Each structure stands twice: as C-alpha cells, then as structure tokens.
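Second opinion, please. Please look over this fold, written as tokens:

===
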Amino acid sequence: MPLKNSILFFLIFTVVLSSCDSNQVFDIYKSVPNKWHKDNVISFNVVPPDSIKPYNLFVNIRNTNNYKYSNLFLIVEMEFPHGKTIKDTLEYKMADPTGKLLGSGLTDIKENKLWYKEQVIFKESGNYKVNIQHAMRENGKVNGVVELEGITDIGFRIENINNN
C-alpha cells in the first residue's frame, strides 16, 4: 500500500475510533414533524441493563435556528415497571444572553445534551417508559405555546458513570 493510502487509512481509522462512545448505554432519538405540538408526548421504552449500577440520564434536543426562545421547559415523566411514576418539570437554557443558540454542531442544527437525573439506579426489573413533552409559554400569556417551532428531534440517553 503506498504511503499516501496508508496515511489516509490511519486518519479514517483514528476518526472512527475516537467517535466511539464507551459511556453510552441507551441513546435513541425520535423526530418531531415540522412543529412540536404541546400534546405530542415523545416516549421511550427502556430496559436497563443492570439493577445495581448507577447511571446518568439525559434528554437530548436537536434544534434549528427557527427555535426562537432562550430557554426550554419540558415535562419529563418516568414510569416504573411496577406502576410508580415520577414527573418533573425542567427548564433548560437554550441561548446565551446575546441570543446565540447553545449546543454543539457546525451547521444550523444544534444538539443539546441536557441533564435529567444523576446516579440513577434502576432497582425494579422490567420495562421503564420515559415520556417527554414541552411546556413552553410566552411571557405575559396564560396559554402555552401550542406548536413549538425549531425542535427537530428529541432523544433520551443513559450513560455509564465515568469513575476516573
């Protein structure tokens, strides 16, 4: 193999290896069609791999420049296998004070990895269900935002806790 091809192969191999994510246990996205309706609940079915080990949980959001708010309010509900339910109303910062959207990404799509819960131990065996819906309101208005623009995908992620 010529030297030029060897260097190219090495660079591609390095990029592929560095993109692997050893902390990932569960990471799934679901697309939001055009606008995210306030009654559209995005659900994820999760079967945790371990009932002793703690995990960190995240809500992942992909948004475009059409997202016009500086924050995001979500209602996240976790249904346990034996019927218990925990519901949280969460607020996340989506833009800096100048209005520049936060998140990673070089294009007009930004990805935000948002903390949901830390050190969670899935003590009950069986299927868990995570439901996510938006709870956005505009300042001074009683009714919530019916159709939220600019959100393209909602994700849920479980990570091993890095104990380094």
